[in-house]
Amino acid sequence: MRLLSLIFDHPLNRRNIAGFRASVARAAGYEQDLLHNHREDGSVQYRYPLVQYRTEAGRAALIGLDEGTTAIFDWYSQSNCRLFWNEAQHNLPIYGMSMEQYDIAYHDQSHTYRLTQWLALNERNYRDWQQMATLTDRIAELERVLVAHLLTFCRAVGWRLPQRLEVSLELLHATRRTRFLGVNVVGFDVNFRSNLVLPYGIGLGKGVSHGFGVCRPMAHRRTNQSAAEK
């Protein structure tokens, strides 16, 4: 799997990610559906996003996986480093960039990850989750959902798991109410362990194209500009 991390020298906060994404989609056109997951008639294609929009250290950023990397390069090469956004023309110089190649890997020892603003549950499921009788039941439900989200990611990038996937939730830092596509949702900040070695910065769960559910290995901190943490 190819993974591109591209950070622009342009400010962006979380609440404006949707506008940034919409501006790129308009500039690229509906035929570049990997950039926005919409068909030419405007209907949504429900699939794991191979292009993910986010903010990194307060700057606009794009993450591309496999074919998504090509879609990003095609759009950016045609943009002349500019984007019409918020009724104005903006320069988008590159602040940092990295391209890496990953293969699926397991490890004898599990790895710890931090998952931020993870949209694990919709509003109804969140209410059901709150009413579960014990903390053990709540943790088990989140682990079940996380396994499903990891499998969705693996299928999207063509990884076929050769053995059992193990996941355990280690720490629930916080739950934060937010909005996604005009709907009230709850984002979870958690630490989890897994025997699957995951790339730095992939998105898991709902809303990953809008910067939700960013997964980072706890023991791995990048030092180059292209991976500045928020």
- Overall tally of domains: 2
Structural class: alpha+beta
Whole-number radius of gyration?
Answer: 18 Å
Q: What is the CATH T-level topology of the largest domain?
A: Alpha-Beta Plaits
Order of helices and strands: EHEEHEEEEHHEEE
Helicity range of the residues? 10-25%
Name the shape in a single word. Answer: globular
Q: What is the makeup of the main sheet?
A: 4 strands, antiparallel
Give a structural overview:
With 230 residues, the chain is an alpha+beta fold. The protein folds into two domains: 2-101, Alpha-Beta Plaits (2-Layer Sandwich); 106-227, Alpha-Beta Plaits. The chain is built from four helices and ten strands. The protein has helices at 17-28, 67-79, 123-130, 135-156; strands at 2-11, 51-56, 59-65, 82-85, 88-91, 94-101, 106-118, 167-180, 183-196, 214-217. It has a four-stranded antiparallel beta sheet. It has a four-stranded antiparallel beta sheet with strand order 8-9-7-10, with helices on one face. Strand 2 and strand 3 form a beta hairpin. The radius of gyration is 18 Å and the shape is globular. The chain starts with a strand and ends in a 13-residue tail after the last strand. Mean pLDDT is 88; it is low at 221-230.
